[in-house]
Structure formats: C-alpha cells, structure tokens
Amino acid sequence: xxxxxxxxxxxxxxxxxxxxxxxxxxxxxxxxxxxxxxxxxxxxxxxxxxxxxxxxxxxxxxxxxxxxxxxxxxxxxxxxxxxxxxxxxxxxxxxxxxxxxxxxxxxxxxxxxxxxxxxxxxxxxxxxxxxxxxxxxxxxxxxxxxxxxxxxxxxxxxxxxxxxxxxxxxxxxxxxxxxxxxxxxxxxxxxxxxxxxxxxxxxxxxxxxxxxxxxxxxxxxxxxxxxxxxxxxxxxxxxxxxxxxxxxxxxxxxxxxxxxxxxxxxxxxxxxxxxxxxxxxxxxxxxxxxxxxxxxxxxxxxxxxx
Length: 306
Fold this sequence. Notes:
Layout: H1 2-37, H2 43-70, H3 79-112, H4 114-119, H5 123-141, H6 143-149, H7 167-204, H8 211-245, H9 252-276, H10 285-304
C-alpha cells in the first residue's frame, strides 16, 4: 500500500511541476511562432509550431492525469474521458518524436543541400508533412479506443484507466506496442542521429562558418538528440521488454515522467532553434552557403554576356 502511495505521489509531483512550467512556456512559444508564421514562415517554424500545439494538448489533459494520481491511480471520472485522455496523452508523445525527426531532416537539407532547401521553402510542404505526422500518430494511438471499447476486448466496471489489461487485450496491445517501438521511436531516432551527425561533420568542414555559429548549431543538434534519448527512448523501450515478457510493465509510468518533462524542455529547443538555425538572418548558416553557391552558378552566365 505504501509503495502505491509513493508511486502516485511521485507521479502527481512531476505532473504538477511539468504543468506549471510547461504551460506558460509553451503558450509563449505558441505566441512567438504564431507571429512569425504571419510574416515569412520557414519550414522549421511550421514544424515547431505543430510541436508546440502537441505539447499544449498534452498539458491540457495533464490535470486529468493529476486527478488520477491524486486518487491513488484509480479512475473515478467517466470512461469516455479515460479514452480521450489516454489517446491524447500517448498520441502527442509520438507526434512530438516524429516532428523532431522532421525538423532534423529539414536542418540537414538546409546545410547539406542549400539550393534544394530554398526551393522547398513553400509553407505548403511543411503543412503537408505536419498533417501526415498527426495522422500517423493518431492512427497508431487509436489502439487506445480499440482496447477499451471493442466488444471482444472491453472490460466493464474497471476502476483504472488504460491499465490492468486482460490476456485478450495484451494479445493485441503488446504486438502493436512493439511496432510503436520500431516505427515511431527507433526509426525517427536513427534518422535524427544520421541527420545531426551529418550536420556536425559538414559544419566542421566549412572554414567560412564562424566558430560561434558552429558551436550553437552543434549544441542544438546534440541537445535535441539528448532529449530524444532521455525523454522518448526509455518509455518506448518498455514496449520492447513488455512484448518479450508478455506483460505491460508497471514501471513504464516512471519512464512516462521523462516524456512529461519533455514539455518543459521543448520550449528551450524552440528558442535555440530560432537562433542557431535561423535561415533568414544575414548570419544564417544556410543563407550564407546558399548565396555563395548561387553566385558561383551565376558567374558563367554573367561573364559570357556582352
């Protein structure tokens, strides 16, 4: 009994801290990106705006998780709220990981292929990518509704929300979670690692880029990777172990606390993203290199004209 009490108290404390810090920070980020998008939105601006919205949706349902933790992990609210809470809680986690992956790809293209990057600056591309990411995460996390409401799987009079699964539920849920681990976690992580490592190598190979700019961009890349490894990977690793053990690990809720803290860290990423990878400033890494290549491409034409 004491273990369950301490467990719920830890969860409640982390939820409250994350809510108090994350909500104002993400509201400020939402305002900043909303203003920016009305002028000249860049692909990263649109993707980071979606990441902010994802974090805010997570924070909106967090008070319901607080109530659950304060009630000793028992669910005394209507069952439909449980379904909505579970769906929003988990889908926003995966939406964030996929958006972080998309941001890493955009940054890599901007550094490695600046001409191509400037051809893809139309907002419609980033909007379509964001919509696809929302659809993928929502489609995957619809398993929360299926598990709780499908006639052959649902359990009545349950005092908990999306926990204590039956054997029938686990037969469906555990393989789906395994697919989550590979498709929504491992693949985005590997893509992020590749893109950011390539960015670091490319930046160090260019002598014209100042040391300060290199340090900012590299620090941003390593920081994003650290967030992915610390806040996203541990929870998804519980899916892998749970599949081979044939159970839903109880300790996965502790790994979820790291994902909860991610809502406080993301606004910091947003701030450094706009300073280290800003593409429309005169000191931009992307713009400098792109303009240099563009000038070189125009030289034969101008020299050949009379």
